[in-house]
DNA sequence: CCCGAATATTGACCACCATCAATATATGCA
DNA sequence: TGCATATATTGATGGTGGTCAATATTCGGG
C-alpha cells in the first residue's frame, strides 16, 4: 500500500530551504525518487508538455495517442503513472477521459531539487 | 557519440518561458528524460544531498560509502551516473576522488520542469 | 620497485519497466 | 437491449537498471 500521493502538498520538506539541512534519510529519498521516476520517460514528458500546452485546461486522452507514436494501452499506462505521481488529474466525461495538470505540481517537483 | 552532457548550459530551451510553446519533440524529450533518470534513484538523491550539505565544496568518495548502505562499486557507479548527467564534478587528488555539485545544475534541472 | 589503499571497471544476476496484442469495462445511442 | 466507441486492464516479452563479488587501475610511501 503506501498509497500516498507522491507529490504531497507544501510541507516543511518542500519549502523554506534552511541554510543547512541534514542529508536526506532513506525514506524521504525513496519517496522523492518516485516523483523523478515518473518524469524519467520521454513519452511521459511529452504527455505533460502537450497537456500543458493546451489552451483549454484539459486534454482528451484521444488527442494524446496520435502525437506520441504509441499504442492506446501504452498511453493509458503512462497517463496512469502521471496521475498516481500527482502530476495529472483525470476527469471522465461520458466515454472520454480528460486530463489536466494539477496546479503547482511541476513547481513542487522542481522545489524538491532545491531542497535536497 | 552523442556524448553531450545532458544538463546543457542555459539555452533557449531552458529559460525565458514564453507564454505558449510547441510541445516537446521526441528528441528533446529523450534528452530531458535522461536528466530525470539520473535523479530517479533514492541513493543518487542521497548522494546529491550529502554532497550539497557538505560545508566544504567537495566530498571525498570515501565519505559517501558508509552513509548509504551500498558496496563501494555501487556507490562509484551512482557517482559516475551523476557526473555523466552533469550534476557532479569529479576531481582526483592522489588516490582520492572528490566530488562537488556543479553550480546551477540542480537549478537548471528544476528549470526543465518549468519549461515543459 | 614493490606493497597497500582508494577508486573504477567488468561480468553476472535479479527486479523492474516500457511496450504491445488481446481482452475487459463502461458509456452513449438506436 | 444490443451495438459501437473510448478507455482501462491483463499477460507476455524484450530491454534496462541496481546491485554485488571479483578484478583492474592508479597512486603514494617505504
UniProtKB/TrEMBL annotation, chains A, B:
Signal sequence interval, chain numbering: none
Keyword check for Transcription: yes
Name of this chain's protein: Transcriptional regulator
Stored Pfam families: HTH_5
Keywords: DNA-binding, Transcription, Transcription regulation
PROSITE patterns, per the entry: HTH_ARSR_1, HTH_ARSR_2
Domain HTH arsR-type intervals: 24-116
CDD domains from the UniProt entry: HTH_ARSR
GO molecular function: DNA binding; DNA-binding transcription factor activity
InterPro entries in alphabetical order: ArsR-like_HTH, ArsR_HTH, HTH_ArsR_DNA-bd_dom, HTH_MetalResp_TranReg, WH-like_DNA-bd_sf, WH_DNA-bd_sf
Keyword Cytoplasm in record: no
